[in-house]
Amino acid sequence: MQNVLSLLSFSDGGWGAALAAGTLVTLTLAITTLPIGIFLGLTIALMARSRSPRARAVATVFTTVFRGLPELLTLLIVYYGGQILIQRLMAAMGYEGQLQINAFLAGVVAFGLVLAAFSSEVWVGALNTIPGGQYEAGSALGLSRWLTFRLVVFPQLMRAALPGLSNNWLTLLKDTSLISTISLVDLMRQTNLAVGATKQPMVFYLAACVIYLLLSAGSGLAFTLLERRANRGYARG
Amino acid sequence: MTFRDILGLLIDLDLLDRYGWRFVEGVGVTAQLVAISFTIGGALGLLLALARLSDNRLLRWLTGVYIYFFRGSPLLAQLFLLYYGLGSLRAFWTDLGLWWFFREAWYCALLAFTLNTAAYQAEIFRGAIQSVPRGQREAAAALGMHKAITFVKVVFPQAMIVCLRPLGNELILMIKASAIASLVTIYDLMGVTKLAFSRSYNFELYLWAAVLYLLIVECIRRLWAVLERRLTRHLRAGDLPRPARPGWLSRMAKTALKPNA
């Protein structure tokens, strides 16, 4: 037990600081991806409801592909495919030499696409809860379509979408562990390194699981507060 | 033009000759992995759901912790915990005579996926069982039915209908998640792809894998929709037996008697 604690401590020979740094990378990756994925998801949802058949087709293909592909495969396709694409582009512009795509960037793009596909379903569901009268009332007040969306529809939308988005966030947080396979030193990768150095897989993988659990629990709390805030107009009292 | 020529326009035929069969095998491994863990996980999940709903507080708390753990941490971490973590306790497993199990990546992956999907399915079953109205139980009790019989004959069938859709989603999530098995040296569809890519450096292979995964997921989705329609056909008003169509004689008589058109 003493031994285990010293392995996880922040002092010399302990891996506490390394795990904390990895946790920070995991959180940074997830928090960077979140707004990108969610707003891309909202765009896809609006496209899925648009009058243009072409926009609807794009939305359908997008969600089918990125909901159907394993996240690991999406990540590798973005990582290796992006590399090849950039190399070809650079070659076409006369630049020779090796270019390494940033693993963090690949992660943000890949997880952003996946999150967009899943959150667009949530947005569509939320958009369906808003009665047409709200749009009509907005235009009767002389608001432009954009202002109607921003001032009238969006606040109500957030309220309906939050529970679904909170699920999306938890999935994203867990999915980010896949980035360890393309050598970004996140929590999972840091754990692998610790296991390699200390030969204590039980301790460290269990510790990683517990850290992920704590992150989930913490963000669950944050979402409860957000939901309370989004529902404040509906509170009784 | 033969079929092969047309195929050649789309994909690299050389690559297909070299790795095509391996991909087929990979799909088979993925299918096995998912089928086994999803089925056993379902049975375990049902037991967990019953324990979660039981009157015993300790049992409720224990299953709660189990479900929270497996739903709250990444499957990747769970897989590594089982394969590398439990796999490091060699002396212990040898004493128990279970070393053959924890030595193999295949069994560890099966175990990790089973335990993981069991936690998710437990929540699905719990929600579904709770969605059956109380009145159903009360009515069965009023008829003098035993609690166990009430569950098997009244509650369970209605709960299963509610479960169908989320279970289908869980199956699809499992198919996607099974790609992680490739990280512990299992040659499922993803593992085969990575192996072939490391030998040929041909990016096309990843696109093959993408198309195959999409095909599998789409097929399962449609099959599940058919299954769902079939199992809920007694619940749809539109499918009530229609009045019998008049026979040919009465139809002819009607046409004959119709005023001139």
TrEMBL record, chain A:
Query: What keywords appear on the UniProt entry?
Result: Cell inner membrane, Cell membrane, Membrane, Transmembrane, Transmembrane helix, Transport
Q: Which residues form the ABC transmembrane type-1 domain?
A: 23-223
| Gene Ontology CC entries for this record | ATP-binding cassette (ABC) transporter complex
The yes or no answer to whether the keyword Transmembrane is present is yes
- According to Swiss-Prot or TrEMBL, what is its membrane topology? Multi-pass membrane protein
**Localisation per UniProt entry:** Cell inner membrane; Cell membrane
Q: Which residues cross the membrane?
A: 30-48, 101-126, 202-226
- Has keyword Transmembrane? yes
Q: Which GO terms describe its molecular function?
A: transmembrane transporter activity
Family recorded in the similarity comment: Belongs to the binding-protein-dependent transport system permease family. HisMQ subfamily.
Q: What is this protein called?
A: ABC transporter permease subunit
What's the source species for this entry? Microvirga makkahensis
Q: What is the lineage of its organism?
A: Bacteria, Pseudomonadati, Pseudomonadota, Alphaproteobacteria, Hyphomicrobiales
Automatic annotation (TrEMBL), chain B:
Supply one GO CC term from the record: ATP-binding cassette (ABC) transporter complex
Q: How does it sit in the membrane?
A: Multi-pass membrane protein
Location within or outside the cell: Cell inner membrane; Cell membrane
* Keywords associated with the record: Amino-acid transport, Cell membrane, Membrane, Transmembrane, Transmembrane helix, Transport
- Location, primary (coarse class): membrane
Which residue ranges does UniProt annotate as crossing the membrane? 29-53, 65-86, 98-120, 171-193, 205-224
Q: Name one GO biological process term.
A: amino acid transport
Q: Name one GO molecular function term.
A: transmembrane transporter activity
Q: Which is a Pfam family this sequence falls into?
A: BPD_transp_1
Q: Where is the ABC transmembrane type-1 domain?
A: 27-224
Gene3D superfamilies assigned: MetI-like (1.10.3720.10)
Q: Belongs to which family?
A: Belongs to the binding-protein-dependent transport system permease family. HisMQ subfamily.
The UniProt entry, under PANTHER family, shows: L-CYSTINE TRANSPORT SYSTEM PERMEASE PROTEIN TCYL, MEMBRANE COMPONENT OF AMINO ACID ABC TRANSPORTER
What is the name of the protein in this document? Answer: ABC transporter permease subunit
Look up and give the organism this protein is from.
Microvirga makkahensis
Its organism's taxonomic lineage begins at: Bacteria, Pseudomonadati, Pseudomonadota, Alphaproteobacteria, Hyphomicrobiales
